[in-house]
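Deliverable D2.4 — example input (structure tokens):
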């Protein structure tokens, strides 16, 4: 599954771009000063003086970096749908079809690319201009995959931070709980449990906001007076009341 076409299963969310229509490529040179085509790597247990082993950068990624540094350089941005076909059409002599598929797949599975998708950034064309939003399911599965990779390297429990990210993604999607679930649920029970945890916390917060709204309405006071009466932060009270109004509006529309 690809990030550009359909959401990948959580266990393979890294593959956000399929060979046929990839979302973008692997880690190209970060800066002009990087040794062309190679990245130094640490080798545990190597004897002093032994040259470090190097990792080859895909030649097609090198070419993409040269042609489109805004998209394949120091910063990664989600690529627009159909970029694979566009690259072949614009550069028929520069890219081999199969090699370009591999290169874009590597790029789309890189952590830096997934982080850009997880952040909810818009899709961009090859000139670096935003053209369309990333689908909620692609954002969701990118968040899960980035979490898995970070958790594998950390002794800290990152689930609280993940829950917050999922909550933000759910709210940013503008979808109802049912519609969002239809988009992102898979057969992976662990991922579904994380989603349910985020929904539970969102429900708890919504109930808290509703209780605050009822107290405010019963007080007959202005927002400023109400916040002052209970010693609450005015900005937080205002935000909570606005959130409740949105919740009520969404419920009325369904």
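Example output (designed residues):
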């Amino acid at each position: 599954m690809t990030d550009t076409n359909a959401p990948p299963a959580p266990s393979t969310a890294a593959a956000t771009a399929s060979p046929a229509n990839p979302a973008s490529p692997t880690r190209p040179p970060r800066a002009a000063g990087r040794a062309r085509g190679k990245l130094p790597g640490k080798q545990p247990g190597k004897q002093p003086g032994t040259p470090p082993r190097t990792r080859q950068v895909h030649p097609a990624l090198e070419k993409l970096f040269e042609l489109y540094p805004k998209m394949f350089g120091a910063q990664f941005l989600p690529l627009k749908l159909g970029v694979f076909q566009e690259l072949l059409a614009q550069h028929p002599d520069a890219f081999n079809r199969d090699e370009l598929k591999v290169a874009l797949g590597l790029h789309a599975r890189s952590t830096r690319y997934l982080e850009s998708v997880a952040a909810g950034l818009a899709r961009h064309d090859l000139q670096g201009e935003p053209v369309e939003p990333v689908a909620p399911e692609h954002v969701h599965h990118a968040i899960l995959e980035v979490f898995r990779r970070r958790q594998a390297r950390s002794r800290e429990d990152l689930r609280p931070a993940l829950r917050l990210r999922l909550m933000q993604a759910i709210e940013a999607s503008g979808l109802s709980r049912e519609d969002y679930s239809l988009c992102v649920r898979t057969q992976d029970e662990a991922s579904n449990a994380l989603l349910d945890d985020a929904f539970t916390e969102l429900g708890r917060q919504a109930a808290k906001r509703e209780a605050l709204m009822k107290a405010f309405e019963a007080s007959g006071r202005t927002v400023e007076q109400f916040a002052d009466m209970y010693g609450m932060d005015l900005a937080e009270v205002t935000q909570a009341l606005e959130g409740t109004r949105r919740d009520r509006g969404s419920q009325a529309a369904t």
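Strands lie at 38-40, 54-56, 123-124, 130-132.
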